[in-house]
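ugh ok fine here u go
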Amino acid sequence: MGKLLALTLLGASLAFLGERLLAFRERINASREVEPVELQNCHLVEGLEYGSEDIDILPNGLAFISSGLKYPGMPDLAPDKPGKIFLMNLNEENPKAQALKISDGFDKESFNPHGISTFIDKDHAVYLYVVNHPHMKSTVEIFKFEEQQHSLIYLKTIKHKLLESVNDLVVLGPEQFYATRDRYFSNFFLSFLGMVLDLRWTYVLFYSPREVKVVAKGFNSANGITVSLDKKYIYIADVTAKNIHIMKRRNNWDLTQVKVIQMDTLVDNLSVDPETGDILAGCHPNAMKLINYNPEDPPGSEVLRIQNVLSDKPRVSTIYANNGSVLQGTSVASVYRGKILIGTVFHKTLYCVL
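structure:
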């Protein structure tokens, strides 16, 4: 009787897991085909061959790019090469990508950069904050950018139990930032199982030297994060739930949800157009191809623009879409004065003049 009951429970559990797996495949657009939307005046950026997972552009047109991410379950075209931070000057007629030198005192060989965010202080000094995954752990690194030396001066590594398995961050003040926790780097199997079962167990946290706390919960897989031009709202992508959360920032750094914008694609990193305030989203139109990578049938790329974010009916339009023949696994897009950089998790980078 006991064995029969155990077999019955096992069968029911497997049937339930199978049903959830099928639902998960449907949710992440396993079989979606991409309708191409191409841009003119584009070329692939030389030297950025192994990913450009996140991009942050300063008001003066200097673009920081994180490259070489080693990510659980994702393709890796350069497994023996450490990650790097690249710089492009978008004011140049033909901008080139150059890897920034990193000062001594930092473990460059285990550098595994993920989400990035810049901060400019009152003296106009530029600081770069980088989510790093050395040895598949999670830290936040702080660098000072030295433009004349074309280098990053290593300042500090931040560790905290709430910063385990962080994905992206947005800096609002000196050592004050919001970050998304996605659980991938704490336990990839449990993270994947959580996505399959549609568990809402990832969150957004706030960090400062004085206080570290969870400020928003209930995400299936919290991913990209950025801030509105007026600094009043925080935008958060929930990649496998296919939506963007608009959160109001309180004086105590807590976040209150204003609305959720539902999408038809998996939203990765977010940026804000500095001229219009629109959200730009790097998206995965058929993410199962990203998980089960086949270079003969590669994952597509998609970039969306979300206008009138706070209105009752935000307008979503496609800026760029490709079936993987040019760009695979888009993770981010960022604009500056009529120019756009489109980055990927592990593949190449596209630069276009709009």
